[in-house]
Design brief:
Blueprint (H helix, E strand, L loop, with lengths): L11 E2 L5 H4 L17 H9 L3 H13 L5 H19 L2 H15 L3 H13 L3 H14 L3 H24 L6 H17 L4 H14 L2 H11 L13 H10 L10 H13 L3 H9 L13 H30 L5 H26 L11 H12 L1 E4 L3 E2 L2 E2 L2 E15 L2 E16 H7 L6 E2 L1 E3 L3 E5 H16 L1 H24 L6 H20 L5 H34 L1 H22 L4 H5 L13 H19 L22 H11 L1 H5 L1
Parallel strand pairs: 6-9
Antiparallel strand pairs: 1-7, 2-5, 3-4, 5-6, 8-9
Helix pairs in contact: 2-3, 3-4, 4-5, 4-6, 5-6, 6-7, 6-8, 7-8, 8-9, 8-10, 9-10, 10-11, 12-13, 13-14, 14-15, 15-16, 19-20, 19-21, 19-22, 20-21, 21-22, 22-23, 23-25, 23-26, 25-26
Length: 660
């Protein structure tokens, strides 16, 4: 049997939107034993490893442990409720568990927000709306209010989508309530992608063209004065022409066709298909039989079926992993999944129109045709992080950049994908409790960035900096984790330190926040300026420095590159990631992997080699580090290094830097 190839991935982006509520902090731990004390950190580690059963076991034991705090028990019950809903679709258990969480400390708005999400996962939209309304009534802090409003918008949107697809009239009063909630989110957090996407749908349902146009531009973070370019240029012009007339229903046939095509061109295939199918947008039901419109509807059906196929397969994988005889079971499931996937691809091929004659189907032809027609980037074979899955998303940006390092240069083709059909098993698993996901993939000449992974983190970091309540919770948690780092480093001087990782991330976030706030900006203007700057800093090391180094090595040292192997390839790219980053200490958090030292993962082995180099330098140069205590473990004192020292150590470790 041919083995499935492990994909190259840019890495996972820790964008844990629920981490404040759930108290997450990812740690690398040994397997959980019967005598170990259950903690949230151990549960987080199991979840990070994608070990569902260990996660549930640890959280369950935490809820009955007499030594657990009320706060930890509340969080454990809430997380168990989400896991039961997400992985098992177990309504009774999920509702019972969230009620137990609520019974501990009364009416916490965050718990009602979690309950709303649970009801959405189970398709219980009226209950989800009520829970979100209760969360909003109880919310006090900015983050609590925003989370409740977003939950309400999600429930209203998904409920309305189901009604539209069933041919039922929407509840306009409820739609207006959802619109108000989401507009309020975007007033505080302009460009927030989830709020903008939901608002676009709700505005289309209401026939509110101006708000729909506003939401569309917010989703792509396009200022009012700046025209869209590239892939988005044409749909932007069309929507600006059509949407102001959306309230005058029915739309003319030409208006309806143009609206459908513009939404599809900007990758909102679900909204395009809905407008083609719903009589509320026009009195010409045969429009869905026009060739281009029919192809859009057919393609949206493929997206829906494939997402369902992936979710069912991923759910089976998660539930079966680690159980008796799971290897044989999963091997059979893998084969069935690939067979079903290919059947869906061939079905789409047969259902699409080919005016000049249908070519014979092949996977390579399918990929080329789907990219040409629908902007689909498709990786339908291989594995991510060791698991069979699919990576598939829609292209919204395609541009060329140049990178230079140590006198060498390379051209980068940077493609940004959004509206993911699947970002892989890992992303699906992690999204049960966090917003972490795989950040993208790459081939020999192109970097593919999965936009949702990055933008979610950017807005979470904004909340952690700008919201005093969030910031206090984050800093209190970091203090607890830092206190534990010395003991962890005493056991393994090169291992993962959750306190150091969290503190470096938060310190970088606050540096960016204070730098932007010094420009006398406030409110929404401060938010969008922060997001743009955080994005620039993030891209400097994750995309251009790291991936740029891979391209430079392949361009100038191809024969050596192949012989180095994956670990050495990654080590060199990670060293460039630090040296050429806008913020080297933030870039170093990409080295502090929860997997550090795992012999099965080349990234993790490269991380350990780099950390060893830093610890050895700190030991040999302790007199050059102000405030260093040589009697303490060294890695927890990494933050005492200056930015230039952080860069210089990486240069010292890099063979390419020392050749020049």
């Amino acid at each position: 049997m041919q083995l499935q190839k492990e994909r190259i991935i840019i890495g996972f982006i820790v964008a844990a939107a629920l981490c404040i509520v759930m108290g997450c902090s990812y740690t690398k731990q040994a397997s959980f034993g019967s005598t170990d004390k259950a903690t949230l950190e151990l549960a987080d580690a199991a979840h990070r490893r994608m070990d569902l059963h260990a996660t549930i076991d640890i959280l369950t034991r935490l809820t009955v442990d007499a030594g657990s705090s009320a706060d930890d028990k509340e969080k454990a019950f809430a997380r168990l409720a989400l896991l039961r809903a997400y992985f098992y679709k177990d309504n009774n258990s999920a509702v019972d568990l969230i009620q137990k969480a609520l019974s501990i400390s009364g009416n916490q708005p965050d718990l009602w927000t979690v309950q709303s999400r649970i009801h959405c996962l189970l398709g219980q939209y009226q209950e989800a709306e009520k829970a979100a309304q209760q969360a909003l009534a109880l919310a006090k802090t900015t983050s609590e209010i925003l989370a409740a409003r977003l939950a309400l918008g999600l429930a209203v949107h998904d409920h309305s989508m189901r009604r539209f697809r069933a041919g039922e009239a929407p509840d306009d009063a409820l739609l207006r309530e959802g619109r108000e909630a989401l507009c309020a989110v975007l007033a505080v957090e302009p460009g927030q992608p989830r709020a903008a996407e939901l608002l676009l749908g709700i505005s289309l349902f209401l026939g509110d063209g101006p708000t729909a146009q506003f939401a569309w531009r917010q989703f792509f973070r396009l200022p009012a004065e700046r025209p869209a370019v590239g892939i988005l240029a044409q749909p932007s012009v069309t929507l600006a022409r059509i949407l102001p007339h959306l309230h005058v229903r029915p739309l003319s046939r030409e208006q309806r066709r143009s609206l459908i095509e513009a939404l599809a061109q900007s990758r909102f295939y679900d909204y395009a298909s809905l407008i083609a199918a719903s009589s509320q947008f026009g009195k010409d039901p045969d429009i869905a039989q026009e060739r281009t419109i029919k192809d859009i509807v057919v393609y949206d059906g493929f997206i829906s079926r494939l997402r369902t196929l992936c979710e069912e397969f991923y759910r089976n994988t998660a539930v079966a992993s680690g159980l008796l005889d799971s290897i044989s079971f999963l091997n059979n499931k893998d084969k069935a999944f690939r067979r079903d996937q290919d059947e869906e691809m061939q079905r789409l091929w047969q259902e699409l129109s080919f005016p000049e004659g249908r070519p014979a189907y092949s996977v390579s032809r399918f990929k080329d045709e789907m990219l040409r027609r629908f902007g689909l980037d498709w990786w339908g074979d291989g594995k991510t992080n060791g698991y069979t899955d699919i990576l598939a998303g829609h292209r919204i940006s395609d541009e060329n950049r140049k990178v230079e390092q140590y006198g060498y240069s390379a051209d980068i083709r940077l493609v940004v994908d959004d509206q993911m059909i699947s970002a892989g098993y890992s992303s699906w698993f992690w999204s049960s409790l966090t917003s972490s996901m795989v950040g993208g993939t790459a081939d020999s000449s192109t970097i593919f960035v999965f936009r949702p992974a990055y933008v979610e983190q950017q807005y979470q970091e904004w909340r952690n900096a700008a919201d005093e309540g969030n910031r206090a919770k984050v800093e209190a948690r970091i203090s607890q984790l830092l206190f534990q780092d010395d003991a962890l480093a005493a056991k393994n001087p090169y291992g993962y330190l959750p306190g150091l990782d969290s503190s470096l991330r938060h310190a970088a976030t606050m540096r960016i926040y204070h730098r932007i706030a010094a420009g006398n900006l406030a409110g929404a203007d401060l938010c969008i300026a922060f997001i743009n700057e955080f994005s620039r800093v993030q891209d400097s090391y994750l995309v251009f420095a790291h991936e740029g180094r891979h391209l430079i090595d392949k361009k100038y040292f191809l024969s050596k590159y192949t012989s180095w192997g994956a670990m050495e390839q990654e080590r060199r790219a990670k060293l460039s990631q630090i040296v050429f980053a806008a913020d080297p200490k933030l870039a170093f958090t990409g080295i502090l992997s929860p997997y550090i030292g795992d012999p099965k993962i080349p990234h993790a082995m490269a991380d350990e080699m780099i950390v060893k180099g830093y610890v050895q330098w700190m030991s040999a140069n302790s007199g050059k580090i102000p405030g260093l205590n040589p009697s303490r473990p060294l890695l927890p004192q990494f933050n005492l290094l200056s930015d230039e020292q952080v860069r210089q150590i990486a240069r010292n470790l890099d063979p390419l830097a020392n050749e020049k």
